[in-house]
C-alpha cells in the first residue's frame, strides 16, 4: 500500500537516507483532496486482466502504453535523466504510472506549496493531474520498472517551474480552490 507524507523543502536529490523518515503521514483521501493525485492498487502479476486497471484505462481513454526501467544498468545517461526527473515541473497531460517492480518517490506540491512525498512500490498506480508541480526520484534501491499510459501518441514534455501562465496550470489551480471530483 502506498504511503504519503509531508516533507521538508530539501532541494538536493532526495535519495539521501535521512530524508526517508516521514514526520507527518497523509491519508490517500486527503492526498486526493489536497492535490488531486489518485491512487489505485493493481494486480501486476495479471495486470492485463485487472478490472480496476481496465476500467481506468477505458474511462480515461488510455490507448497507448509503454514501460520504462530506471536503473544504472538500464537507463542511458542515468544521472542526467534522474536530475531531469527530479527538477520540479508540470505536464499538460496526466502522468500515469503503474509500478511493475522496484520502488521510488513522487513528490507533489499542495496548495500551500508544501511537498508531499508519495512512496510507490510494486502494484501501486498513481495518476498525477495535469498542471501540478511535481518531481520523481528513486529510493536507495535505485531501481523501478513502471508502465506509462497515454491518451493517443505518447507525449512526455516537462515544463520546468515557473510555468504558471500555462493553461493546464491555471486549470489545476482552479481545481485546487474549487475541489477535485
From TrEMBL:
Cofactor remark: Binds either 1 Fe or Ni cation per monomer. Iron-binding promotes an acireductone dioxygenase reaction producing 2-keto-4-methylthiobutyrate, while nickel-binding promotes an acireductone dioxygenase reaction producing 3-(methylsulfanyl)propanoate.
Membrane topology: Peripheral membrane protein
An MF annotation (GO) of this entry: acireductone dioxygenase (Ni2+-requiring) activity
Biological or metabolic pathway of the protein: Amino-acid biosynthesis; L-methionine biosynthesis via salvage pathway; L-methionine from S-methyl-5-thio-alpha-D-ribose 1-phosphate: step 5/6
Catalytic activity field: 1,2-dihydroxy-5-(methylsulfanyl)pent-1-en-3-one + O2 = 4-methylsulfanyl-2-oxobutanoate + formate + 2 H(+); 1,2-dihydroxy-5-(methylsulfanyl)pent-1-en-3-one + O2 = 3-(methylsulfanyl)propanoate + CO + formate + 2 H(+)
First and last residue of the signal peptide: none
Binding of Ni(2+), residues: 89, 91, 95, 134
InterPro entries, per database record: ARD, ARD_euk, RmlC-like_jellyroll, RmlC_Cupin_sf
Family matches, as Gene3D superfamilies: Jelly Rolls
Uppermost EC category: oxidoreductase
Name by which UniProt lists this protein: Acireductone dioxygenase
Native source species: Lutzomyia longipalpis
